[in-house]
């Protein structure tokens, strides 16, 4: 059987020899207080080289161990299985920049596999593992990091505020803290970084997430995080230069070979054991539907538990791994048009993925920034509460895991045998990781920040859905409001009712309301704010006002932005409201 996700336990992992510097002290109170004076350091290249050697050794040893088991996979079968997956990928992924080189490599593997001796098969396996690790390998260039941390705080707010030279001269440089606001349990995140090793798990909305969360990490005084980035982010030469040298390692989501996934997970595991904070997007890729991700990919997340067990085995001083979820919240999403189109095509069983989306075209990015003028608080980074690799809440002050009643838990007992020795048990650990995934998903909902565009989109979508309840979703997307629009007075009344339901949930700490229009509870102001945003960037405005009525110009985008409020049972609670249609 494939070994993906089922590597045997590897004992005596190498102990860490490096720890990032402690973060500076202070309190953000919802926004940054300045920048760290010293540039935090990510995994240095000498340490990264050591990690690569460790990963290759562990994965090879695991493959050898499982091949000796009674029901294990022989090495030649494992190589052939990997060959099969890679050749299938190359049949589809012909646009890959390394396509010709990959074809030549795997053709060479195929030509000699059938006549190879056992030692030769082992050497071939080593070659494949080595190739995968080199593909994944990240890099950290302190000089480029210094440049990025000097340039980004100045360039990002200009980019996001579409500042013209005239406006720059008249108003000066905008404050990035007014453009990207950091809220939530920031001190808890800082404290976790002091007490152990952090895995930061953000929601994934846009390719803008990477620079936004990168700046937020820096602004909070934390060291640069090691993180996996999809190959699409390396396609732009300028972006690639920074991505390759700021601690990112490459993740090829087109690769389905279990062996590749094992190498990837082991790379993340080793970096955590070396004390490197990591950033994982547990959705795996941007969420195409616009919903808050609830079905998470747990492969990389399982690295946290493996690293924790290995830390116990090596008796590391600070063995704990802390998972800190956070949400990224936008009024408008750069790639929304292609993302929802892709989602609807998938739901309709279409067999393609849109790769050339808005975030890969410079003109679309320029258009996005030029049209987002004078819009307040467009992006909010909300830091959630820390959890452990088992899904338990963590006391931010002490770093101890606690149960639902606030009582301390000794999590070492979760992974030790009767003799008190930490052990890897794949079936047990999969259950624990699934529990952690559910806890992260719950934190995503809890720390979602509702903005005006989402609230109004949800209100109008539900209004139209009930108005045309004889139509399925796809017919509704084509029909829309049939040019009749919705009366402003009706929409304002319903926005108020939706706000009240959301406010009730905010009072029960089930979500957050954005400061400003939404938090004010003024339904007319909420609607006006949403209309102003929706009329700026997209090819067609999502909503427009004509006279005393509001018209939907793009039903797919209306669906996309409304989906952010799924998961709170609003539809059922407010069904009587939407059924009582008023022209």
Tags for this model:
583 residues; alpha/beta; seven-stranded mixed β-sheet; 15 strands; 49% helix
In what order do the strands lie side by side in the largest sheet? 1-7-6-2-5-3-4
Described by the principal axes of the CA atoms, the overall outline is globular
When the domains are counted, the total is 2
Termini distance?
61 Å
* Residue runs with pLDDT of under 50 for 5 or more positions: 1-42, 161-170, 350-357, 366-377
Mean pLDDT: 82
**Computed Rg:** 25 Å
Strand runs, count:
15
- Could you say which structural class the secondary elements and strand pairing correspond to? alpha/beta
Helix run count: 23
List the helices and strands and how they pair.
Elements: H1 45-67, H2 75-92, H3 99-113, H4 118-136, H5 142-161, H6 165-171, H7 176-179, E1 180-184, H8 186-195, E2 197-202, H9 209-219, E3 226-230, H10 237-245, E4 248-251, H11 258-273, E5 278-279, H12 302-313, E6 321-330, H13 336-347, H14 362-371, E7 379-383, E8 393-394, E9 401-402, E10 408-409, H15 426-446, E11 449-450, H16 452-467, H17 473-479, E12 486-487, H18 488-507, E13 512-513, H19 517-520, H20 523-534, E14 543-546, E15 549-552, H21 555-562, H22 570-573, H23 575-579
Parallel strand pairs: 1-7, 2-5, 2-6, 3-4, 3-5, 11-13
Antiparallel strand pairs: 6-7, 8-9, 9-10, 12-15, 14-15
Description:
The protein folds into 2 domains: 1-332 and 372-398 and 426-447, no CATH class; 449-579, no CATH class. Helix content is 49%, strand content 10%. Helix 1 packs across helix 11 (258-273). It has 583 residues and is an alpha/beta fold. Strand 9 (401-402) and strand 10 (408-409) form a beta hairpin. It has helices at 45-67, 75-92, 99-113, 118-136, 142-161, 165-171, 176-179, 186-195, 209-219, 237-245, 258-273, 302-313, 336-347, 362-371, 426-446, 452-467, 473-479, 488-507, 517-520, 523-534, 555-562, 570-573, 575-579, and strands at 180-184, 197-202, 226-230, 248-251, 278-279, 321-330, 379-383, 393-394, 401-402, 408-409, 449-450, 486-487, 512-513, 543-546, 549-552. The strands form 4 sheets. It has a 7-stranded mixed β-sheet, sandwiched between helices. A 3-stranded antiparallel β-sheet has the order 8-9-10, with no helix packed on it. The protein has a 3-stranded antiparallel β-sheet with strand order 12-15-14.
